[in-house]
Amino acid sequence: MKRLSRCCCCCNVRDGSITVGVLGILLSIATIIFIWLAPSHLVSFKSYFFEEQDKQYSISKIIMTISLCFTILICSALIIAIKKRRSWLMLPFVVLGLVLAIGLLISILHTSIVLYTDDKEDYTILATCILVGGLIYLILYLYLWVVVFSHYLDTRDEEERGRYSKSPYRR
What we know:
Layout: E1 6-7, E2 11-12, H1 13-37, H2 53-84, H3 87-116, H4 124-165
Helix pairs in contact: 1-2, 1-4, 2-3, 3-4
């Protein structure tokens, strides 16, 4: 895979990776606030594991909040890793990014297919908007992941070169 040297043609991948980490933290905090402040008739959180609606709603919100807190933790670790130039500390973000991209693709496809096949009402326009908008978001997300992955590879290579390129008396 070819590494990127610039992020959005204006800054290097290090600054772009820091921006991705900060955006991840800010979006996670905004989502947590939205989850807990949104009225239940406006947004519904569903789980296939519980029968009761109230219990299902509360447990789904708690699970999503815990997940978003871990995302904040991993994005914070990414920022610290970039500042200290530690590739092993970037690895959780790289792995989480791939898992989230796969989950996002599955979610987009599932939601649009369910809306396309709904017999009660015609949601064709909504399903198409979700499909197209979701795929655009997925492409943007994957680009930002590639920016972080490129910086991860650069940092890892720098760490490996640094061990053997320095003279013993200069350490």
